[in-house]
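Saturday, quiet lab. Running sequence design on the structure tokens for the scaffold JK sent over.
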């Protein structure tokens, strides 16, 4: 291992491995990892919610099940303003398909839901 050429190749190979690992970690692959919340119920019974909230629920169902189970947000223990932080975090993920307008509607639903629904 005295030739510099060998060292240069070793450094390049390790460098590539690091780059590949970092890009894999950053990809939206939430479906691969399973969160405990994924195993809970995957719907909310919104039949007693105000009509406006039932509308927002449809948006939530559609937008928040793209990268992971709908059960994940449904069984998370966030409440009130915590949701704002999380929905915005999800919006910033590549390919989320979320806009500030839909994000606000989803936040309104999730905040309302966290006030009325009992979770075990
Ligand atoms: C672009 C893909 C994508 C979309 C769309 C998305 N999520 Fe996520 N979500 C993720 C990923 C990836 C994780 C794994 C944790 C992380 O990377 O933050 C995650 C994790 C979560 C978690 C668990 C966070 C924790 O730390 O316990 C919640 C709750 C959540 N998402 C809610 C939502 C809601 C609500 C929506 C709809 C507004 C949504 N997600 C839409 C990618 C997405």
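Result came back. Writing it out in full:
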């Amino acid at each position: 291992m005295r030739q510099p050429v060998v060292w240069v190749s070793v450094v390049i190979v390790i460098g590539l491995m690091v780059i590949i690992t970092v890009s894999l970690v950053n990809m939206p692959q939430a479906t691969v990892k399973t969160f405990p919340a994924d195993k809970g119920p995957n719907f909310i019974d919104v039949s007693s919610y105000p009509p406006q909230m039932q509308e927002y629920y449809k948006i939530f169902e559609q937008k928040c099940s793209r990268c992971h189970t709908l059960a994940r947000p449904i069984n998370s223990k966030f409440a009130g303003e915590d949701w704002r932080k999380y929905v915005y975090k999800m919006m910033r993920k590549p390919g989320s398909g979320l806009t500030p307008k839909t994000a606000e509607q989803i936040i309104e639903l999730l905040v309302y839901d966290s006030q009325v629904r009992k979770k075990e």
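Notes for JK: The pocket of heme C is lined by residues 28, 30, 35, 63-64, 66-68, 72-73, 76, 86-87, 90, 93, 95-96, 98, 106 (CB under 6 Å). Residues 4-26 form the longest helix (23 residues). Ask whether to fix the surface positions before the next round.
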